[in-house]
Design a protein that fits this description.
Length: about 500
């Protein structure tokens, strides 16, 4: 397993940043908004829905350039001269959606289709939770340029490579086994312009605490798989901003949590020669089912109270974590979305779907799914923030489409449709401190919007009935979206 040392990692980051700036300089710079900053759209007589203001019927929403400039009752807003008037009768407007946990780098062949697939599904913001800098920095720049020129890419938020311990699991892992190494890595990531830091399963508790302290002192969020050598309460108390997949929360909610923690620490200490992936698998096999079977009500109350008090967000990733139960890869309707993938990816996924469907769900997989469904309303009731993320394209999750499945699963698990919409709009904005720019439909907010043909509060699957998408002030009508999908189906990319 390839591991990157701190010194080589720092040098590599410098070269990547220099190369990106060099290319940008000679490519030229464009404006930060649409090509015509005075372009005005007026969505007239539309029903507006967001998590702050609820449902507001009979509204007009005026957009100039890439900002909302007015929202109010349709009869009270005058039509400006020269504006493009969009009849919103019978339509519903929600803020642009987030996929708050995914991976742009997972499959190279999928890259040309990635941004179009996200945009046609109304995803105007994307949180990439692990990628090599030599991939994600140019990709983020490409997204910025596309959003300025034609609104055909989401805004990308990134963590870069995640920080792990001695044993690493992925090529995007950076190993830190000393405070000096950790400091060098964190400084390099900050200099590269990451939006947050991500920590992984086998980081040691002392290095974990060091990274939390460094990042938080510089105002940067830290997300994580709670390291296996730690308890969730300890990890949250140190200042953790977000837990991905609710990973290892099940261990801390067990009546045997202390015994399980000690066992994990011993397994890690006794296996320095194993890869992170191998060691993670052994620990999960040894402990997960037992943890699901021994959930303790009193302990759960203590842990959830801690997460709420510390504002430690949760990203459940039900599309992945509950896949043993919903088995979306067996759905003929879902497999139809594969036709928008590049041919090589499409063929591979079709074959993998057949193979996966032939395998019965495991006992631990079903236990994990049922536990995850049970946890969702408990998180909401405890006042713990939830963000909607999918971990796409893992587990045959078609980019963009998978976010709508995540919303449906959140509602299936017990959230209201409004809470699910909040998890994909306002909550990620709050997580990054951007709630004054996005996540609601109000004056001075970004013009990143989704227009629907039916009310998502009546049925959350209505988020899939997209009529139009506005990204950075550029309007993509249903005809535009259909043309994009047609090109993806024929060519695997937009020409």
């Amino acid at each position: 397993m390839k591991t990157t040392s701190a010194s080589n990692f720092s040098k590599k980051i410098f070269l990547i940043i220099f190369s990106c700036h060099f290319m940008i300089f000679f490519a030229g710079c464009s404006s930060t908004g649409p090509r015509d900053g005075d372009t005005v759209f007026l969505f007239k007589d539309i029903t507006v829905i967001d998590a702050v203001n609820g449902l507001r019927a009979g509204q007009s929403v005026m957009i100039r350039g890439n900002k909302i400039v007015e929202v109010g009752l349709a009869e009270e807003i005058e039509e400006p001269s020269g504006a493009t008037i969009v009849d919103g009768s019978g339509k519903y407007m929600i803020p642009g959606l987030w996929d708050a946990h995914g991976h742009l780098e997972n499959t190279d062949a999928l890259t040309p289709a990635m941004f179009p697939l996200l945009i046609v599904n109304g995803i105007t913001y994307f949180r990439d939770t692990s990628a090599n800098l030599d991939f994600i920095l140019p990709m983020r720049k490409k997204a910025e340029e596309a959003s300025r020129s034609n609104g055909m890419a989401p805004q990308v938020f990134m963590s870069g490579p995640h920080i792990d311990g001695l044993q690493t699991s992925w090529d995007t892992s950076v190993s830190a086994v000393s405070a000096k190494q950790a400091e060098s890595i964190v400084d390099s990531l900050i200099n590269a312009g990451v939006n947050e830091i991500k920590l992984y399963d086998l980081l040691s508790p002392d290095i974990y605490s060091e990274v939390l302290s460094m990042a938080n002192s510089k105002g940067l969020n830290v997300s994580a798989h709670v390291p296996m050598a730690m308890d969730v309460v300890e990890a949250s108390d140190a200042g953790l901003a977000s837990m991905e997949h609710m990973r290892h929360l099940e261990f801390s909610l067990s009546s045997d949590w202390e015994t399980l923690l000690k066992q994990r620490q011993e397994m890690i200490a006794e296996s320095p020669e194993k890869s992170g992936r191998e060691l993670r698998g052994e620990i999960h096999e040894a402990q997960r089912l037992h943890a699901f079977q021994t959930q303790d009500e009193e302990r759960r109350a203590t842990v959830l109270r801690t997460l709420a008090e510390n504002n430690t967000w949760q990203v459940p990733n039900l599309t992945l974590g509950a896949s043993a139960e919903h088995r979306i890869f067996t759905s003929d309707e879902w497999k139809k979305t594969f036709r928008y993938l590049p041919e090589s990816v499409r063929s591979e996924w079709e074959e993998r779907a057949i193979s996966m469907a032939e395998e019965p769900p495991s006992e631990v997989g079903l236990a994990r799914a049922n536990w995850a469904y049970d946890m969702i309303p408990r998180l909401a009731e405890a006042g713990i923030g939830i963000m909607a993320g999918t971990d796409m394209p893992l587990a045959l999750q078609t980019p963009g489409f998978s976010l709508h499945e995540e919303l449906a699963l959140l509602v299936h698990a017990g959230l209201t449709p409004m809470q699910a919409i909040e998890a994909a709009t306002l909550h990620p904005a709050q997580y990054f401190g951007l709630e004054n720019q996005q996540g609601t439909i109000a004056k001075d907010m970004k013009a990143d919007l989704v227009i629907l043909d039916a009310n998502p509060l009546e049925d959350i699957t209505n988020t899939q009935r997209l009529n139009a998408v506005m990204r950075n002030g550029h309007l993509h009508t249903r005809d535009d979206l259909d043309k994009i999908l047609d090109q993806l189906e024929k060519h695997g990319k937009v020409l």
